[in-house]
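The instructor's notes for this session suggest beginning with a concrete chain rather than abstract definitions. Hand out the sequence below and ask the class to guess, before any prediction is shown, which regions might be ordered.
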Amino acid sequence: MHAAECDVFAERQHKVEELQSSFTVIKSKAETRQSDLEQTLTVAEKFWDNLNGNTAALKEMQDVMASADPPGLEPDTISEQQEMLEVFLSC
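After discussion, reveal the predicted structure:
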């Protein structure tokens, strides 16, 4: 082999090694990103489950409050409504 051919071969070998090194870095970063995305997905799913649960509970409370009788004018009615409200708030 001539010196020029050896230089071309060495240059190509070096480029292949650089590509292999780059591929290794890219693969490692992709695996890290996949792990991060999986962890984020788990947290996001819990967040949306909690948010949807709280939204449903608030909607239920809103419906109960909307269907409640207007404030009473007589002391017995007011006491009864206060008791019902206390039970509702304790849940």
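Then share the key points. The chain is about 90% helix and 0% strand. The chain has one domain: 3-90.
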